[in-house]
Amino acid sequence: MKNPRACLLAAIWLMSACSTSAQQSAQQPPKPDATAPATQAGAGPARTKMPEGTNINSDAKLMADFKSKVDDYLKLRKSVEGQAPAVKNTSKPQDLLTAEKALAANVRAARANAKRGDLFTPATQALFRRLLNPSVKGPEATENKGAIKEDMPEPKDVPFQVNADYPRDESLSTVPPDVLRALPQLPPDIQYRFVGPHLILYDVKPNMIVDFMLNAIPPIGTKKQ
Questions:
Q1: The sheet that has 198-203: what strands, in order across it?
Q2: DSSP tag of 7
């Protein structure tokens, strides 16, 4: 399948040129179509049943804390966006690439002390594994795992390093709706992606790995297996 990242990046740069009021009016995502491919911002308000033994108050606090940290990261990224060169023509891949690299360098400098686990804390990782379990072991497990494997890169091909560039020649995994409904909803530019059984927090605009957690789900093999 053709890597959609270039088209996605162009669309995001175009949306960034819109007014702040227009962005605010579009914050509420539409309810997902069950027949449509999974999208990061389309999880909708519905929630899957919480796994047995869930401490709702504790889980809600962890999820709110995670979302707050994502919001803090996004504020940091937006604070340095003005330092990158403006994209005058989004139809030129080289202009997009130049702006992307400049933004990534600025974000990397602004969070030079960032480390693994800043967003995916140990407690958050334990929660996410529990929330993901029904999606990969329940009635829809076969379908969900098949969707994840469709464009999933192998772990050896992606650097597991905070602030690292995501390899441009590697595809981005599909994230099924069941998974998106189970996890905290993310801003449009920030995405969950699987690399083998591992989960990364990916920022589209600078093409950057914000954080990652290992063994988020049991091993599911690759498309070739």
A1: 190-195, 198-203, 208-213
A2: H
pTM (two decimals) = 0.75
Tokens describing residue 135: 């999606």
Cβ neighbors of 72 (< 8 A, separation 6 or more) are none
User: Which CATH number goes with the domain that contains 178?
Assistant: 3.10.450.160
Structure tokens at 137: 């072991």
* 121 domain-assigned: yes
Tell me which residue range forms the domain holding 74: 57-79+114-213
CB 218 within 8 A of CB 197: yes
**Type and span of the H or E element at 190:** strand 190-195
* In-domain check, residue 104: no
Instruction: pLDDT tens for the chain, 225 residues: list them.
Output: 445 555 555 555 545 544 333 443 433 444 444 444 444 544 444 454 555 555 678 999 999 999 999 999 999 999 999 887 677 667 788 888 888 999 999 999 999 999 999 999 999 999 999 999 999 999 999 999 999 999 999 999 999 999 999 999 999 999 999 999 999 999 999 999 999 999 999 999 999 999 999 999 999 876 655
